[in-house]
């Protein structure tokens, strides 16, 4: 247990006492597990967002449009790393938190894929107009 976990546990006890409720150590520990899971989820999702913004072949931000295969490969590798990181930070595995991470990562990937598709469409349209003007 680290300082923030102990602080959460103490806060849970104090809130329970102030409310006139009784709290067991198990209840407080469950609160710590949930708090740590949420913190790990936020960190994993933020790390995933940062990692997904970088093209692994150049270690620079993506130059869109790019191949769908490259985006998918980067997503799969970054998603697997984010899940491993999340699981390493949780005190107990929580499938709901893992599902929340997967959902958040899927949304981020869809956003990047949509941006890539839009840029590809723009390039195709400009190429078509260039060809017709010549």
Q: How many domains would you count in the coordinates? A: 1
Report the biggest beta sheet as strand number plus sense, adding barrel if it closes.
2 strands, antiparallel
Structural class: mainly alpha
Q: Topology as H/E string?
A: HHEEHH
Task: Give the CA-CA distance, first to last residue.
Answer: 70 Å
Please report which band the strand proportion falls in: under 5%, 5-15%, 15-25%, 25-35%, 35-45% or over 45%: under 5%
The tally of strands reads: 2
Low-confidence stretches: none
Mean pLDDT: 89
Helical stretch tally: 4
Using the CA coordinates, give the radius of gyration. Answer: 22 Å
Strand order of the largest sheet: 1-2
Helix content: over 70%
Shape: elongated
Structure description:
There is one protein chain. The chain has 134 residues and is mainly α. The protein has one domain (38-133). Helices cover 78% and strands 3% of the residues. The chain has helices at residues 3-18, 25-52, 68-89, 95-133, and strands spanning 54-55, 60-61. The protein has a two-stranded antiparallel ribbon. Strand 1 and strand 2 form a beta hairpin.
